[in-house]
Design goal:
The complex is a heterodimer of chains A (about 700) and B (about 120). Chain A is of the alpha+beta class and about 700 residues long. Chain A is built from 21 helices and 17 strands. Chain A has 5 domains: about 100 residues, no CATH class; about 90 residues, Beta-Lactamase (2-Layer Sandwich); about 70 residues, Helix Hairpins, CATH 1.10.287; about 120 residues, Histidine kinase-like ATPase, C-terminal domain (Heat Shock Protein 90), CATH 3.30.565.10; about 210 residues, Nucleotidyltransferase, domain 5 (2-Layer Sandwich), CATH 3.30.420. The two termini of chain A are about 25 Å apart. Chain B has a 5-stranded parallel beta sheet with strand order 2-1-3-4-5, with helices on both faces. In chain B, about 40% of the residues are buried. Chains A and B meet through helix 8, helix 11 and strand 11 of A and helix 3 and helix 4 of B.
């Protein structure tokens, strides 16, 4: 019920009350006096009727004025106090300013005192929460750091396929051009086939490290799916994705090699067998014939030998397991080994003659374990306390020597050592050899490990970008487990669980219908109540016309800056992709939307999702404030205004404001998208009628 | 004096050829079928050259080679034979004291020439 209606009602009730009182008093007097007095009184009343009526009206009028003043002095300010009191939790520095009447000034002072205490209490709680959160944050940072160091791509998703967490490797692998396919809250199904994931999630396969492959361009990706269990069923899944291009290449070459070895040997073997069986079955054949058959056997056997040599020579690079081995700088391998040897008491190890730029193909930890095991054995068996590690190239191999002064390991002990599973496995996988010998006055155990070889067309064309831990981007958001998917019906969902794209445009002017065009679009995503500063969109657009000087003054975008930028026709599809599955938010968004709508027909890009306007939501929260400009709202809500009038800067500011409006809207019972749209619609109507009233 | 060649291999079929070839070339031959037999044969037969297969039961060729060298048979020529033919193996063979390394399958003529050259290098 609005103030005017209540004022009218109060006045009416008061008038009726007073009239009823007068009538009752009159009736009482009439009943208590005698008939003569009644007559006299009636006559006097009849004579003075006009006077009485005027007096009555004056009295009522006075009452009306009094009630109105009381309303103006108490009821209206009270409403404002209520609204402003609600601001305090959002902006704890906000204080009420009421001068009169005295009683309300007292009330305001009391509220302000409470606000002071609230602020103090909140700071206290805030500090404690911050301290508690710091631990959690540290854990998360550790996780983020760990994830960022992983060369394998990791993506964690809700069961609906919404991305909760991803690492830099995942971004690099699945979204190398930063098209926004990979982002918090986005659907993984846009990049990884849904069938592949549900196949991997089947209960039969649960827990197994099943590898499915998919192709993406000319890349071959291996995808592992693991369920995240909660209450006995999957609440999400973890994807680990590897680039198998190189592996596939290798396995293809192995296939070729295998075919070459089998098919290529059949023909010569056939010839040899036919010739030799003929010779044996027909011992009576003449000498010349015998000689010819023998030559066939020799020639074909030679052919076989040559074929084998050639094939092995060509395929040598593919005979080891390259994906178990990583390329490692020799010096790094030695350093790692030396560091590990420090853990052995009584043994000193140092690196001798490091051969600078030797690259090996090795499983570093395994090789280090083998060396550590060897040195500890040398210590126990031969009391060798001082070893030197060295490395030099020999042919296709690197010889890693553990050298010492004294007798060598005798062959039998050496064989026992190399027969151990640990050592045998490492040698097997590296296609290497190990032995102990003496040479150049020194005794050594030598490990031959393959040198890194240049494979044709090496994979990983894109250099990995490292996560900067200091300004750690928000690559994860586990709260999304509770959030809802964009594919569900929008309207009934809670605002704090929806994904939003807050955007702003800069234009050549204010009249889209008269040919003004967009020169810049900036946008930022809000997911689960968090502004994702690393998931932004910013694009300068060639408007196809010069930018007027007065517009340049507003946004500072000059014609030079726009030269060579893409036209709106190619920009809009990308932006639509960025905004897909989210509610649009803007300040005075109708203005920006008009520009987008005018392009719909030509580009075929339609923005069909709901849109919310902070210009309309702010009055729903603060109906008693007049100014709902971006700056004014920002000030009221305690948002610092920086970088205005760039599209992205304004989008971020609007986003922050929007986030602060959410709890205020909730305080007014506006929690769903539907309710917010309705509130905005009402404000819009009120503003339209207000404008009309002022104009006429 | 006819040079003596010890053939150490556990595959009878190749032993037949090796023995035949060495004999035809005029060498005195003896066959050993595993590492221990070979070590014993060197002591008794005192060969000038050993054709030593890598893949032997129990003690492998590398070990036999190393043990022979360690036992002071420094002047003895050792030619290692292998079916694997990996570069790493070859490097190991040379480092533990073999004089040369021949990969199976080999050309009979090449092998005979090779053995002859090594034996002559001695003189």
């Amino acid at each position: 019920m609005n103030v005017k209606l209540r004022f009218g009602l109060a006045l009416a009730v008061l008038a009726v009350w007073v009239l009823a009182g007068a009538v009752l008093v009159g009736a009482g007097i009439l009943a208590s006096i005698g008939p003569d007095d009644q007559r006299v009184l009636r006559r006097i009343l009849a004579d003075q009727a006009a006077f009485l009526a005027v007096a009555g009206l004056l009295f009522l009028g006075g009452l009306a004025v009094l009630v109105k003043r009381a309303f103006a002095a108490y009821v209206v300010p009270l409403k404002r106090i209520a609204a402003e009191t609600r601001l305090v939790p959002v902006n704890p520095d906000y204080r009420l300013d009421v001068r009169k009447p005295r009683e309300l000034q007292d009330l305001a002072a009391a509220v302000n005192e409470l606000a002071d205490r609230y602020r103090a209490a909140e700071r206290d709680v805030g500090q404690r929460v911050a301290a508690a959160r710091a631990d959690l944050e540290q854990e998360r940072n550790r996780l983020a750091a760990l994830m960022s160091e992983l060369t394998v791509a990791v993506v964690v998703c809700t069961i609906e396929g919404r991305i909760l967490l991803y690492n830099a490797a995942a971004l690099e692998l699945l979204d190398p051009d930063r098209r926004g396919n990979v982002g918090l809250g986005r659907s993984i199904f846009g990049v990884v086939d849904r069938g592949l994931i549900s196949h991997g999630l089947e209960p039969v396969r649960a827990g197994s490290a099943n590898l499915a492959t998919m192709t993406r361009g000319d890349q071959v990706l291996g995808v592992r799916v693991a369920a995240v269990p909660a209450d006995g069923e999957a609440s999400g899944f973890v994807l680990t994705i590897e680039d198998l291009t190189r592996r596939a290449e290798t396995s293809e070459r192995r296939d070729v090699l295998f075919r070459a070895l089998t098919e290529g040997t059949r023909a010569p073997l056939g010839a040899i067998r036919a010739a030799i069986e003929s010779m044996l079955d027909y011992p009576d054949m003449d000498l010349a014939q015998r000689q010819r058959f023998a030559e066939i056997v020799r020639d074909e056997a030679r052919r076989l030998s040559d074929h084998l040599d050639r094939t092995l020579e060509e395929s040598a690079a593919y005979l080891t397991d390259p994906w178990l081995l990583e390329e490692v700088l020799g010096r790094d391998l030695l350093t790692a080994a030396e560091r590990s040897l420090r853990s052995l008491d009584g043994v000193t190890a140092r690196i001798a003659e490091p051969d600078g730029e030797l690259w090996l193909e090795a499983d570093t930890p395994a090789v280090v374990r083998v060396i550590t095991d060897l040195v500890s054995r040398l210590w126990t068996d031969l009391a060798v306390a001082d070893v030197r590690l060295s490395l030099q190239a020999t042919g296709r191999y690197a010889a890693l020597d553990v050298r010492w002064d004294g007798p060598p390991l005798d062959p039998e002990r050496m064989r026992k050592w190399t027969d151990q599973a640990l050592v045998a496995d490492v040698l097997e996988r590296h296609g290497g050899e190990a032995w102990s010998s003496t040479g150049g006055g020194q005794t050594y155990v030598r490990l031959l490990l393959p040198l890194a070889k240049a494979l044709p067309a090496p994979p990983e064309p894109v250099p990995r970008r490292r996560l900067r831990i200091g300004s750690r981007p928000e690559f994860y958001d586990f709260d999304l487990f509770r959030a809802v998917g964009p594919e569900d019906a929008w309207s009934t969902h809670r605002l704090d669980q929806l994904a939003f794209t807050v955007f702003d445009t800069e234009t050549t002017g204010l009249n889209p219908s008269l040919g003004d065009e967009i020169v810049s679009i900036g946008a930022v995503r809000i997911v689960n109540g968090r502004l994702l500063r690393q998931e932004t969109y910013e694009q300068l657009v060639d408007p196809g016309q010069p930018v007027p000087i007065e517009s340049q003054k507003v946004h500072g975008i000059t014609n030079d800056m726009l030269a060579g930028r893409p036209p709106i026709d190619t920009v809009l599809p990308v932006f639509a992709e960025f905004a897909r599955g989210s509610v649009l938010v803007g300040h005075n968004i109708a203005f920006d939307l008009t520009f987008l709508k005018l392009k719909e027909e030509r580009t075929g890009v339609r923005f069909t999702q709901p849109a919310l306007d902070t210009l309309l939501l702010s009055p729903a929260v603060h109906p008693d404030h007049e100014d709902h400009s971006l700056e004014a709202i920002a000030e009221r809500l305690g948002v610092s205004v920086l970088g205005r009038h760039t599209a992205l800067g304004d989008a971020i500011l609007t986003g922050e404001i929007f986030l602060r409006l959410l709890p205020l809207l909730a305080g007014r019972g506006i929690v769903t998208l539907e309710a917010a749209l309705e509130a905005a619609r009402k404000t819009h109507q009120a503003r339209v009628s207000e404008t009309l009233r002022k104009r006429y | 004096m006819t040079p003596k060649v010890l053939i150490v291999d556990d595959e009878p079929n190749i032993v037949i050829s090796l023995e035949f070839l060495m004999k035809r070339r005029g060498y005195q031959t003896l066959v050993a079928r595993d590492g221990d037999e070979a070590l014993a044969a060197v002591e008794t037969f005192r060969p000038d050259l050993v054709l030593l297969d890598v893949m032997l039961p129990r003690r492998d060729g590398f070990e036999v080679c190393q043990l022979l060298r360690a036992a002071g048979w420094t002047g003895l020529k050792i030619v290692m034979l292998t079916a694997k033919g990996r570069e790493a193996e070859m490097a190991k063979g040379m480092d533990v004291g073999a004089d040369s390394y021949v990969t199976k399958p080999f050309s009979t003529r090449d092998l005979v020439d090779h053995v002859a050259r090594i034996l002559e290098g001695d003189r």
